[in-house]
Each structure stands twice: as C-alpha cells, then as structure tokens.
Design goal:
globular; 5-stranded mixed sheet; about 170 residues; Rossmann fold; about 20% helix; alpha/beta
Length: about 170
C-alpha cells in the first residue's frame, strides 16, 4: 500500500512519521505543531498533537511541519507562511494544486524537490514497506530555512523562490 492509500479514511490512521534522516539533515526545530501522538523520536523541542489542535495554539521559534495530508494541508501551510519564526514543511509535490498555488508558490522562500519517493515510518518507528506513492517536497518559509534546504545535502532539486522579503528574513 502506498502512502497515498495510507492517507485515506480506509487506512484508519493519519499519522506517518518523517524519516529520521530528513529531520537530521534539517537541524533543530523549536516546535512541531502537528506531531504524532505516539512517536519513537522527537521532531522538535516542543510537540503539539491532534489532541492539542496545533492550529489553535501559539507557535514559537523555528517550526517543523509534516501536516496531515489532504484538504487540511493548506491550513497548516497558511499558518506556517505567516509565522514570524518561519519553518519547513514536508508535503507531496503536487505543484498544480490550489494549495501549492496559494500557499507555496505565492508565499514560500524555497522548495527542495526530493529525488525518489520517501518511505515514511509507522508510529512504532518501523519503516513502511511501500514508498509514499507520490513525490515529496520540502518547503521553506524564511531566508534561513531556504538556506538550510540549499545546504542540507538531501538529494533533490533546490528551487529558490522570489518570495524572500524583509519580513521573511
């Protein structure tokens, strides 16, 4: 089963962990506002889960965001785009969607299109046997996060965007 199938009501769950090598390459984050309830490794210094409803809580510092995929993704990206501390999100690289047009192309500072398809992990830490079923991208908000994507060493195509302004520095 692909992650695309996993991210459906039929799968019965919506919590898939970011591969640890991705997090290691991006450095320390202050907050993960959509962290899994159960996780074998930390994704940030502070975690908010579905129980906390991270969209309604205060955000601080540099944010890591592997949001629930589907219709809710745009809400998380919109919040991240307006967060003064900036951050990085991991989303499917479906570049033609309304979410990408409104929340990435018009607001992000850079994108790293990852080569190959990721294997996400189950909440017990085991790697999913099937790949994600779609290409993934890391989306940076803020100049420092854009620089992190440029220099992180993850295999992919780095694309700087024209949305770096004084407000995002």
């Amino acid at each position: 089963m692909s992650i695309g199938g996993h991210h459906s009501p039929v799968a019965g769950k919506d919590e898939w962990l970011t591969p640890p090598h991705i997090l290691a390459a991006l450095g320390r984050f202050d907050l993960d506002p959509c962290a899994p309830i159960v996780r074998p490794w930390d994704t940030a210094g502070r975690h908010l889960t579905a129980i906390d409803n991270g969209l309604t809580k205060a955000w601080n510092g540099r944010v890591w965001c592997n949001p629930p995929y589907g219709g809710a993704t745009a809400h998380w990206l919109r919040r991240l785009a307006h967060h003064p501390g900036g951050g990085i999100a991991l989303i499917f690289a479906r570049t033609e969607t309304d979410c990408w047009v409104k929340e990435v192309w018009g607001k992000a500072s850079a994108v790293l299109f990852l080569f190959g398809r990721l294997h996400f992990h189950h909440v017990d830490g085991t790697r999913a046997p099937a790949n994600s079923g779609a290409p993934s991208a890391l989306v940076a908000y803020g100049a420092q996060n854009a620089e992190t994507l440029r220099t992180c060493g993850l295999p992919g195509a780095f694309v700087p965007l024209a949305n770096i302004t004084k407000e995002t520095l």
